[in-house]
Amino acid sequence: MAAKPLVIILLLLSTFGCNQPFDPKGPVDQQMVVFAVFSTDRDVQYVTVDMSYMPSGFDPLTYTSDNALNDVFVTLKDSRNMYQLRDTALARLDTSRYKSPLRLYALYPFTVRQGQTYQLVVQSRSMGVASATVVVPGKALLDSTYSARYILIEPFSHFPEEKIRFPSRLSSSAKGYLARLTITYDVLKGTEWVQESVELPIATADTAAYSLEHPIYPQIAPNLSAGVLDVTYRNGFLINTIKNLILAKYADNRMVFKWIVFTLIQLDQNLFNYYSVVHDYRDPRTVRLDRPMYSEINGGIGFVGACTVDSLVFLLPTNFSGNR
Amino acid sequence: MRTRAPHIVLVLSLLISLASYISKAQTADIYGVVTDSLTRQRIPLANVTIIGTGRGAASNNVGFYLIPKMAPGTYEVVVSVLGYIGLARKAILREGQSLELNFELCSASIEVQEVIINAPRKRLETETSTSVHVLEKQDIKMIPVAAQQDLLQSLKILPGIVSTSDVSSRFYVRGGAGDQNLFLFDGIRVYYPFHALGIYSSFNPNVVDKVEVYTGAFPPGFGGRLSSVVNVSTRDGRADGLSGQASINFLSAEAELEGPAFDNSSWLINARKSVSSKTFSNIAGQNIPLSFYDATIKLSTQPGGVKKFDVTFLSSGDNLLSGSKDEPDYSWRNNGIAITGSNLPTGRIFLQWVIFGSVYSADRNAKESRTATSASTSVKHYGLRTTATVYTSQEDLYFFGFEFGFPSMEYKFVNPAGAQQEIASSLVEPLVWARYQSKLGDMQLDAGVHVEVGSLLHGGKPLDEIQPRINLSYPVMGSWRAKSSFGRFTQRMLTVENEDDIVSIFDAWIRVPEGLPTQQADHYVLGLSGNLAEQAFLNLEGYYKHYGSLVVYNRDKLQASDPDYIQGTGKSYGVELTLRSKVAWLDLYGAYSLGWALVDNAGLVYYPRYDRRHHLNLMVAGHPAKGLNATLRWEFGSGFPFSQTVGYFDQPTFTNTLPGQFELDTRVPFMMLGEKNAARLPAYHRLDASISYDIRLLDFDVSAGLNILNVYDSKNLFYFDRITGRRVDMLSFYPSASLTIKY
To answer: Cα(B586)–Cα(B589) distance, rounded to whole angstroms?
Structure first.
């Protein structure tokens, strides 16, 4: 019967009950991993140079070997000079995974200039050359309204709903920004004066009453509207922040309020893009479900970004309400 | 649209008037319906032949036939269809007087019935058209299953249909995505026809009469999807007497009642409910606290002549309720109604219409899950659809139709940024189509145009929305026919899901985002079919699908202002071979597909995860003794694509360190993937067996069945957890039994 061969074939196949091995790992793609964020508010700039790795098992957190790349020569070039970064090490804040010190490359003393373009070149004997270019955002123009200045030095003499406005203009090379308003004070703890700062929220869960429950602070935002900004706070939050300090947190301590600082941090394109990707685009409307890898390094993985920090400082009078 | 709709009606009215005029010629027509003498069920695809004239016709999907323009005289009209005893009747035709000649056929004994997509009545459709498959209830019954029969699982034996896992009825047709398939249940559009993660479908095979599956180049009248159409027709309740059935298996219990109502009317109620979630867990290999139900109610009446009216209700629901507060709960529901009617209002125009409503809703309650967020979605789709068939001559058949559909979609979710979102959209979907079937010499022509009027009015390109559909077949030698077809299709709705998800439990539908063109595809099919031997039928088809526009993820999205989706393109092509044969008491079936699918996402060209290069299904069904049926099925599929892990690197997250010391930020490992979907999973293969025995005891029809899935316990990879290294295989050796008692 013609069906017999087919039945026989099927029965023969049935003897191949087998377990085909599977490993999702492919050939290891060894890459140089470079991260750097140059900032205008510090006189030392760091670059980390590591290797990509493959854990022997599947949980990457079980990989605890130091994967810093040692055979590298790191330089930073601007339009006129070339600087060589030195091999150094820092103590890790978190030693739960890596026990060895953090190995990196440092340039000190060195402050990046606003508006300047830098090229980072990392040469490795074993991994070749990786490079990246970064444009440090130019200087931001910060200002405050006339009324804002008065409110800041005498908040209790003004209504809570009054606005504290900071009309500003971002550099055209800034792709993102972050605004902060902080109040700095000295507090006597025992016999020692300690300086502390607290950031003012831009809103809270109960904005109408200016409650400080569930505060909402400004987030990194894209540079839209051709760089024109109008960062606005409400005096009610300033009043309640001070009240919270003098009546609750440090009710029994002596305090001296020193200054209020409006800070504007500008992010270059690479840093802003990277930040957006790892924080799900900060896009309240996104329906996207995956997270891509962002890399802006030629010959490697990672990115070199930059940020600038500009600020307006408002010194508080010695008779500032709350000083005692 | 408001201004154009009356124009469409006017054109159709003119056409109908024209056809009425034609019908007044001095000849006469013979028409009628073919029904089952006992159940009063209409019989489609019955051959009606007028002896000695070479004239004849096949009954349509509601058993209606019409043979136009017969000269006056006396004729013998014979009706034959497999599974029924043929019947001949005398017809006396008088000039200008059409004759209604209805046939009631007696069912042949069950042993005569031929199964496994081999029956000649199906070959009427499949031999002359490309990419169409017809399955009937007995075909579904023959296929070995996990615990209970399933319609959509049965479709996986067809060439060109691929499923990525044993535990999902979801399928992919000729390289198309899972949301490109249109499911119709007596005209109800069903948006998520799956139970139990997709292990089973919501369509109970016991209420199914026939399933038409178009895997490509489908005819005018079907639209809104790019890849396939699954058109399910339910059977009527028995009109001859009260009948009941109860069955139970490891998974569910089912009860069915049917019987006559008032004159020439019948009703059918079928309800099914899961009885144990333990069975799901055994099938899926993990704890799945799931329960489901579905119910179908159908009322049918044939008030006289060829008229027929039906009302069908479909209701199904699933709950996946986890006992753990860290795991989300899911629930989804499908409810639908279709009111259908058919009539012959004028001499040669047969009208069929359906008013339908469909509501799909789904909820995901995240509870305290860290990986999922709460979401809900719904699709409501109401509409009216009418088709007029105009019989003008023996060789020519015209179809005209229109549909007004109003789908509205809602999707509420919390996005990865933590914001509550709601996407609500609605569409007005008027469609019109015209179709012409003719015999030009030896060549059979089936051509038409399908117009997506709604898309056109919303700025769609006329070349995309006015869609030609054509099918040609030509006898080349002996029984061999060459076939070719072409069709253009568009789709305005899509599901939001991660295309790399293993199983999608929660399908949210949205319309194509603003600013993007409608998804569009062209199908080209070439085929050859014929008999290798007297009892061996072969069908060979090659296809090429070009996706001119697809909605794909914007993988270059960097900022909130960048769109989530962009326009992509794609293509798929392949060859399919189907062989059917009968040797003594054995039915043999084999289907082999060789296919490629590619998606182009802004220059990144990759194989989608459902791209399967080789797919083979072999099936042997035997009937060695009265009431005894046995089936062996072996399936082989080459591996699906996946992206390999090629390493990790530690990346800073800048959670609280801007503009501080980024170098001290705690870094998290990021998995580096190799070229997208460039590697392949291991191949899949499995042997299933089933045996059933039907016997009549007292007044009861008893059917006992035994199914064994994965007879040789092949370890087919389902998924691999890259973090834990845990491998999860698909269905292992799985025996199940069932018992059905029918009164």
So the answer is: 10
List the single best residue of B412, B500, B565, B663 to mutate versus A (max A Cβ within 10 A).
B663
Interface test with A, best of B414, B645, B729, B731 (most A CBs within 10 A): B645
Q: Which CATH number fits domain B5-108: 3.40.50.2300, 2.60.40.1120, 3.10.129.10, 3.40.50.2000?
A: 2.60.40.1120
**Is A97 a member of any domain?**
no
Q: In whole angstroms, give the CA distance from residue B465 to residue B403.
A: 15
Determine which helix (DSSP H) or strand (DSSP E) holds B277, and give its type and residue range. helix B277-284
Q: What are B552-566's pLDDT values in tens digits?
A: 988 887 777 788 889
Q: Where are the domains of chain B?
A: 5-108, 113-233, 234-643+678-742
- Domain span including residue A207: 146-267+306-315
| Contact residues, chain A, for B497 at CB < 8 Å | 289
Asked whether B595 and B159 are in contact (CB, 8 A), the reply is no
User: If you write DSSP's letter for every residue of B413-475 in order, what string do you get?
Assistant: EE-TTS-EEEEEEE--EEEEEEEEEEEETTEEEEEEEEEEHHHHHTT--HHHHEEEEEEEEEE
Which residue type is seen at A42?
A: R
The position carrying tokens 């690197």 is: B649
- The secondary structure of residue B128, as a DSSP letter, is H
Rg (alpha carbons) of chain A, rounded to whole number? 27
Alpha-carbon gap, residue B729 to B716, rounded angstroms:
5
Nearest partner of B417 among A2, A194, A239, A221, judged by Cα: A221
What are the tens digits of pLDDT across the range B640-690?
Answer: 999 999 999 999 988 766 777 888 888 899 999 999 899 999 999 999 888
The secondary structure of B457-468 as a DSSP string is HTT--HHHHEEE
CB B379 within 8 A of CB B407: yes
Q: Which of these ranges, A37-46, A263-272, B124-133, has the smallest mean pLDDT?
A: B124-133
Chain A residues inside the 8 Å CB shell of B634: 10, 13
CA distance A264 to chain B (A): 10
Residue A226 region, left (φ>0) first, then alpha (ψ -120 to 50), else beta? left
% helix / strand / coil in chain B, to the nearest 5? 10, 55, 35
Cβ contact, residue pair B646, A288, below 8 Å: no
CATH code given to domain B234-643+678-742: 2.40.170.20
Pairing of strands A301-315, A32-39: parallel
DSSP B10-28: HHHHHHHHHHHHHTTSSSE
The residue whose two tokens read 């029984």 is B479
Q: What is the interface pTM, i.e. ipTM, of the complex?
A: 0.88
The string of pLDDT tens digits covering residues B510-525 is: 999 888 999 999 999 9
Say yes or no to pLDDT of B33 above 70: yes
**Which of residues B591 and B440 earns the better pLDDT score?**
B591
* Cα B103 to Cα B92: distance, rounded to the nearest angstrom: 15
Within 8 A of A136 by CB-CB distance, chain B residues are none
Strands A86-90 and A163-169: unpaired
Please enumerate in sequence order all residues whose Cβ is within 8 A of that of B152, keeping only pairs 6 or more positions apart, or say none: B169, B171, B193, B194, B200, B201, B203, B230
- Identify the sign of the CA torsion B158, B163, B169, B175: negative
Within 8 A by CB and 6+ apart from B145, the residues are: B153, B154, B690, B707, B709, B736
Q: Tell me which residue of A52, A180, A271, A173 sits closest to B653, measured CA to CA.
A: A271
Assigned CATH class of B113-233: mainly beta
Mean pLDDT of A100-123: 95
Kindly state the DSSP code that residue B643 receives in the 8-state scheme.
P
Which of A25-34, B155-164, B251-260, B727-736 is the most confident on average? A25-34
Distance CA B418, CA B424 (A): 19
